[in-house]
Amino acid sequence: MGLREDLERYREVGEQRRQDLAEFISHGELGDGEKIQVPVKIVDLPEFEYDQLDQGGVGQGQGGQPQPGQPVGQPQPGQGDGDGDGDEEGDGDEAGDSAGEHEYYEMDPEEFAEELDDRLGLDLEPKGKKVAEESEGDFNDIAQSGPKGTLDFDSLFKRGLKRKLATDFDESYVEEALKVDGWGVDEVFRWARGENIPVSRAWIADRARDLDDEERSTWPSIDTMEANVEQESTAARIRREGVDRVPFRREDERFRYPEIEEEYEKNVVVVNIRDVSGSMREEKRELVERTFTPLDWYLQGKYDNAEFVYIAHDVEAWEVEREEFFGIRSGGGTKISSAYELADELLSAYPWNEWNRYVFAAGDGENSHSDTEENVVSLMEEIDANLHAYVETQPGSVQRGRHGDKVQERLGDADNVAVAHVGGRDDVTDAIETILSTEGGGDSE
């Protein structure tokens, strides 16, 4: 590997490679939940440093020759720099001063979602629901009425020209038929119709009035006239004479107007539910935040428009702001169904046919007697959502609550229900992968 390749490798490591996302999600500082700052390790590039040899040092061959084991003296300023003026250059920090330091690479949610997809091998495809707006596109559509400024002259001319070609005929040829001995207007009109000549009876009558008696017997028969007079085609006449006049009619007018384009916005509403009862101590709350925050980032990055609803509950449920969602704590008991009842009520503002919905709940698996089987399961079945997920946090304990297991038993076969268990920080990434890889359900428009 040459120096150039080596430098490129170090630049990649030092400037582009980010700390592994799994480590960041599990152990990194998530911040305020709005900024995604991933630590970046700073790696120094290798560089050459020239030592300024002391005069009379190694290689002098005189009294300054050091003996084996004797340290070589420190280089003196101005010696060995080659400029002869005694000034020292390159007073910057020595190489290696910043080794081991960290800076932060700030991601937006969209980039975070791409990185997480790559890290977990996922690629959730957002569903497009709700017409965001209608906009005017190119002037490709045609109407029979409109402002004069949008009149389509090309269409008008083509329609007029088409009519001219359809109604045009060789006038001199028809006039010769009027010169057949014994023929009048009616005979010529019937003959012209038989020959598919688009001439009106009025036109024939008008031309017949202009003929004198001698001209009316020029041809003994129509067959003789046809044998001696050649009919000129419309195309040949146009090539010879050009087009002096194109007959336009009002019904030929067409007006251009812009196509109406419907732009579909990918909308999502995420309902985050957290048990804040007395059993949800600090470590459990921290694991909920460490799981929910990347999920929020991920969905925000995947959808054009993302809205978040936060519900805290003990025996009762109430809506809270994000700032207090992860820190609030109550001393009461637990009734999870109260949160789903409130979620169902709040989701009425986000119709299922227009919004994608995700309902994420978290707790330590404890619930009041029979509430899971009698209330929560049925509510999860009734609430339309792309994904229902329950995250059970029981750090450092093999004993788990029963709520998550009961949901798994009753709804485990559904393609839009996920249950994940988080016993510590190292389980967070696996829980996120379990949740996102389960996403299904719901028709998209």
TrEMBL record:
Biased composition (Acidic residues) is annotated at: 82-96, 106-117
Q: Where is the signal peptide?
A: none
* Record field: compositional bias (Gly residues): 56-66
* Compositionally biased spans, kind Basic and acidic residues: 118-133
Record InterPro entries: UPF0229
- Ranges of compositional bias, category Low complexity: 67-78
One Pfam family hit: DUF444
Indicate what this protein is called per its UniProt record: DUF444 family protein
Q: Which residues form a coiled coil?
A: none
- Write out the ranges of the annotated region (Disordered): 47-146
